[in-house]
Design a protein that fits this description.
Blueprint lengths: L16 E15 L4 E2 L3 E2 L3 E19 L8 E6 L2 E2 L4 H11 L9 E9 L10 H19 L5 H15 L11 E4 L13 E3 L12 E5 L10 H6 L7 H21 L2 H20 L10 H17 L4 E4 L5 E5 L4 H12 L8 E5 L5 E2 L2
Parallel strand pairs: 5-7
Antiparallel strand pairs: 1-4, 1-14, 2-3, 4-7, 4-8, 5-6, 8-9, 10-12, 10-13, 11-12
Helix pairs in contact: 2-3, 5-6
This protein binds ligand DP6.
């Protein structure tokens, strides 16, 4: 598929008004997306587990304008409260996707959204938020062009979500989602995420992820700025090459259920992501002292317990603790007894791998 194929054919139906709701999850990358080209094209391919509990629910109510407008008309509310701060991000998103969703200037919209995770928990809500919004917009387009296939619907939802936030492309469908062209992953695309097409061992089913909320404050450096700093970064090419190699290694690890191989790739990816931040110009550090305390505790516990618990990080101080379902009791006891003290207000969220977004209404 090319970008052009996402420009819709003339709409065949006319709809005056309606309402649609989607619930879309967050995701946690195993091989990280860090660095991008123009139009939200990733500098390297990435893969993530889809989460189940951390999700955004978005309702879009739409009403046709008397005549098409030159600008976008919408209101946004978070948990029932009008959120003016969200408007610029959504305006930028609408600008980017307008050529693929020409109905955007023919309707006025009310966007109501809420997250399952605590406000400003430091959990990235852009993946779940942008994917939920993209799905609602696709549902509206499906009403205008009812003959579209479900595959096209999902692909275009991921394509649109990507234009809102890169990682959101991986939150539409599937428990393991790959985004970005990779020579050995058939069907992979820079334009949208695909369900990981290769064999995955049963040990990775229902894999657990406990998110430790280490720092809930505003990040000093946004992901978008961080991605940008990969332009001209001294280690960029080497890093992009490494991501391709790690995806290749992950193929065998996932097929064979090689948990030690999994740990080594996933932890190295997390530390490399932060190493890129520490070696960019300007350089910055998003980990906090408690992030390091937690990492060291995990390493010591893994050694003692012979379990397969490991960590990953996204662009912040929070730690994602990953472990197989059959080690859940032991690892969750360790988290509650030994790691919760390093979290702000002792907060953490037990999550596990889910299957993607759901239509609610
Ligand atoms: C570190 O998707 O938040 O979580 O495309 O600028 O919205 P934008 O960036 P975003 O970047 C996420 C980066 C990451 C790694 C990952 O999820 O792959």
């Amino acid at each position: 598929m090319t970008e052009k194929e996402f420009i819709p054919s003339p709409y065949t139906k006319s709809v005056l008004s309606g309402k649609t709701t989607y619930k879309s999850p967050s995701n946690i990358a195993l091989v990280k997306y860090w660095g991008k080209k123009e139009n939200q094209i990733p500098a390297n391919p990435s893969i993530s587990f889809t989460l189940n509990e951390c999700a955004t629910v978005t309702t879009v109510t739409y009403e046709r304008l008397n005549e098409p407008s030159n600008s976008f008309f919408f209101d946004v509310a978070l948990d029932g409260k009008v959120e003016e701060n969200f408007k610029p991000k959504i305006s930028t998103f609408f600008e980017r996707v307008y050529q693929y969703l020409p109905f955007l200037k023919e309707y006025q919209f009310k966007i109501e959204t809420s997250n399952s995770f605590p406000h400003s928990s430091g959990i990235a809500s852009s993946a779940s938020g942008m994917s939920a919004l993209a799905l609602c917009l696709m549902e509206i387009e499906r009403n205008l062009n009812p003959e579209m296939t479900q595959d096209y619907f999902n692909q275009k939802a991921s394509f649109l979500a990507r234009l809102g936030s890169g990682s959101a492309a991986r939150s539409i469908k599937g428990s393991l989602v790959q985004w970005g062209v990779h020579a050995k992953i058939e069907g992979s695309s820079n334009l949208y995420g695909v369900e990981y097409p290769h064999k995955v061992h049963s040990v990775f089913q229902n894999y657990c992820d406990t998110i430790l909320l280490v720092d809930k404050g505003q990040k000093q450096v946004s992901s978008t700025v961080g991605h940008d700093l990969m332009h001209g970064h001294p280690f960029a090419e080497q890093r992009f090459h490494q991501a391709h190699e790690n995806l290749l290694k992950l193929e065998t690890v996932l097929a064979e259920g090689d948990l030690n191989g999994f740990i080594s790739i996933v932890e190295s990816e997390a530390l490399t992501l932060h190493a890129m931040m520490m070696t960019s110009q300007p350089y910055f550090i998003l980990m906090k002292p408690n992030t390091l305390e937690i990492i060291n505790k995990i390493w010591a516990f893994r050694e003692d317990s012979k379990t397969h618990v490991c960590f990953t990080l996204d662009a912040g101080a929070n730690v994602h603790v990953l472990y197989p379902e059959d080690e859940k009791a032991q690892v969750q006891e360790f988290i509650e007894d030994e790691l919760a003290v390093y979290c702000q207000n002792g907060q953490f969220i037990h999550d596990f791998v889910g299957n993607g977004a759901q239509k609610i209404n």
